[in-house]
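Structure ticket #2291
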Amino acid sequence: MNTVKRLFVSFKHQIDSVAADLEDHQALVATAIEELDTAGADTKIQLNQLRNQIHSDQQKQKSVADEAALWADRAVQVREQDEAKALDCVKRMQGLHTAKRF
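Resolution: structure written out below.
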């Protein structure tokens, strides 16, 4: 009987050990899934921020290009009447092109 009892206790211990390992693995998997969900949400937020920033930068670039074209037109229109003003227009246009690069 003593041998049967030891065998039963040993067998029960092994089953408990396997169950504990399985529970540990389930907890690790659940934690990993939660971390992935959080990382995925953070990535979506960053992606939307980048899309908004790209859109904003494209709008700024278009605005600067339009303003530079306006200064170029003004320079051409004013050139014959006042060359100094035309040169100022060209300087402003070049300043916009320089700012657009950065």
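Closing remark: The longest helix spans residues 2-78.
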